[in-house]
Amino acid sequence: MFHPTTVDAATPRAVRTFINQVMDVYLADVHAMLRLPRPEVNIAEGCNFSIVAVLMNVISGVSVVLYEPPANRQATGRKFMETAREFYPWDTEPVGAVNNPDEGAEILYGSFRNPMAHAFGFQEPEPPGPLSVTRFPGPGLAEANLETIETSIGRPNQALRGAPTLMRDAATQALRLNVESFYWGARELLRRLTADAVRIAVAENYLSPMLRPAR
User: Which residues pair with 175 in a beta bridge?
Assistant: First the structure.
C-alpha cells in the first residue's frame, strides 16, 4: 500500500492539497513500478529509466511550484539545481558516495535529468565516463521494504541495502544512479522543503486560489 508523502506538521492547507492531489499521484506510480520485476508473471523489466524520469519530473515540478513559483517555465534549470542542492538529503549519503550538494545537484540535472528528458540520454560532448541507472538485483521490492522507505525520515540504510544515490568511479569516471535510494531521497527532499516556512508561505499564496482543500 502506497504511503503518502510525509510533510512538516506546519505545512499549510493548499500546499498539503497540492502534494496529496498532484505529487503523490506521481509517487504512487513509482511505488507500483518498484514492485517490478515480477518474474513469476513474466515481467522481467524493472522500469529503471521510467522511475528515474518520474522522480526527476517530481523534483522539477516541486522546484517551480513550491520552491520558487510561479510555474512560468523560466529559469527551470536553475530552480531544479537549487532545489536539489538545498533540500536533497546529501548529508545522509554513505561514505564514498557523491555527497557534495553542488556536485550532486549538477550531476542529477546535467548528467541524468536534462539528457534523459530531451535526448534519450545522449550528450554532446560525451560525459567523461559511462552512466548507468541501477536497481537492486532480483525481484522487485516487497511491500514491507517499500513501507520502510516511504515512512522513514532518517535514511533507512537496511531497506536501501547501503546503496548511495550517486556513485562515481574514480578510475573510470563512471556514474551510477540507484533507483531505490533516489526514491527515498526525492521523498525526503519534499519533506525538508515543506519545513522551509518562508518558501512554503510563498507557495501557499500561489496555490491557494487554484486548489480546493482535500477532504
Answer: 131, 168
Q: What is residue 118's predicted lDDT score, i.e. its pLDDT?
A: 47
- Per-domain residue ranges of the chain: 13-207
Cβ atoms of 98 and 168 within 8 Å: the answer is yes
DSSP lists the bridge partners of residue 131 as 175
What is the 8-class DSSP label of residue 99? -
Q: Which residues of the chain have pLDDT under 70?
A: 115-128, 211-215
- Alpha-carbon distance of 158 to 10, in angstroms, equals 30
pLDDT for the residue numbered 141: 96
Q: Amino acid identity of 42? A: N
Name the grid cell of 116: 534523459
Q: How far apart are CA 10 and CA 138, in angstroms?
A: 40
**What are 61's three cell numbers?**
515540478
The per-residue pLDDT for 18 is 95
Cis peptide before 213 (omega within 30 of 0): no
- Determine which helix (DSSP H) or strand (DSSP E) holds 166, and give its type and residue range: strand 166-168
CA torsion through residues 105, 145, 162, 36, sign: negative
* Nearest Cα residue to 179 out of 138, 149, 136, 143: 136
The maximal CA–CA distance of the chain, rounded, in angstroms, is: 54
